[in-house]
Design brief:
This protein is of the alpha+beta class. It folds into 2 domains: 237 residues, no CATH class; 299 residues, paralog of FGE (formylglycine-generating enzyme). The chain is 46% helix and 12% strand. Helix 1 runs parallel beside helix 9, helix 1 packs antiparallel against helix 10 and helix 9 crosses helix 11. The two termini are 53 Å apart.
Length: 559
Amino acid sequence: MHDKPIRLALLITTISCFFMPSGVLAQSPESPEHLIGQETIEYPLPTVKLTLSGGLVLEFCIVPLRIGEFPFAAKEIWLGGRGAGGFKEPPTRCMLAGSVLMQFPNRRDWCILIGKTEVTLAQWQGIMGTPVPSDADPALPVTKISRAEVYTFVEKINERMKRQKPSEVIKSPYDTDLADAFLRLPSEAEWEFCARGGNAVDSTTFDKPSPYQGNLNQYEWFFGQDSSKGKLKQAGLLKPNPLGIHDMLGNASEMVEEIYQVEYSQGRLGGGVVRGGDFRTEEADLRASMRSETPCVFADGTAYRNSAVGFRLAVGTIIIPSMAAGERLENEWEQYEKNRIQPSTDPPAESAVSSAAGKELEEIGTLARELAGKFEIGETKSLSAKQVLELMEVRVANIRGSMRRADARFATGAVALSSIISVEAVTNSAKLLQAQDMINDPDVPEAVKRASNERVGVFNGNLSRAEDKLEDCLKMFGEIPMETVQAAFDAHMATIEQGKKDAANRTEIEDRDRQLAATKVTRDIAFDYIQNRRVGMDKWRNGMMSIARTWVEEVKKKE
């Protein structure tokens, strides 16, 4: 979590980047999906292959986390729904670390290795020895298996792999130490990060229900005549996701390692966790955040098995393989503990530093009041102690007030910045529409069309940079209580309304109307982000374009 100085620096930096001199383009951050260090990479990466006796082959996709090689490095991600799934899929902060350290050409990085496809009937038979039914396709994902049977499969495949030595049967395109490697089910965090496209997609796409471009039936099997037609399909038939992984959201739902908890990592423990949809799921319901709880046994005592539930594997490694490694980690831990980010045991809906600290202060204040009352009841002469407690309560109240005021000032600045970004986006959208009109006008000379075509690229670039800046603002809003952000937007829009009343002419009134409309769209996007951790850039850009289109049409009428 950011403290106030860091957040203020971020705000100042964002404002500085946005208001660069004319003709100077602010450099956008390097796109995370295609860089490891300074190295450009193309997704999907080559796969890691495990070849066991009997011709059994499993492929694993490499998913770099871009966190470097520090033993305790982790990536902050948000699990859960962005408006869908209700209480079963709450937006939850998680620190995700890799299992395998890989040497890329320019750096070492922690990675996730996850199955390219779900485990198939043929692979199941190759390990468990159970024959595939004569009427079954061996390329289908294995289903109708209990969680205990899956763990037996994992145990058996690890035994075979260890007997053949992992370093000899696992072939990686990049240097890595897999001597201590073993296979397991992926965690919920690993599964969802991969289902969302990991670092192969930008943050806006990562927050969408699925990471795909184009028709969903090109990538996933779901219920319907243009997809599964209500039947399980062969693993890996459709196009993979941006990381190269097949069938993550549909075909068969997938068991993961954890026991079910509503808040992922805290609260009551329940049954097993199953992620994703299956061939019976409606297209509109498929999403990366989809999760279900399954029982261990049915009411009649038989183990839970489902014809639409399978699994895929992930590669793990031992964290402390030797005493020497343990000593190295001990030294690294001392460095890490000084600045470590706490895992997602924080309340998932609460991300603002001031709000979280405010809760702690509230508890201190309550204790102080309670103790002060106890001194009075016992008629003790320890008046100095009572006075200290009363002073403590006053100090707590002062701190809480200071934090609220700091939040309010920060929210005011972030709202003003987001409004400026949005108004500029409306202006660039209007110029883009005018340039496109010039290109499509048959009476416009070719030289003018060529110049207009170049301007289209400039305006689109400006809009992309505006999206980056607005996304920074959304992250700022995510650090502030909802009611504080709402108050800041209300105050800002009231100022715009007053400016409209004080306008000297019709042009100024129209300018204020556009500013107000753009700010309202941005406000709705900000509220959606705070509540659901959803970056609604498509909605924002469409809103800016709609305002611009109305503006351009009004100009045409005046001409």
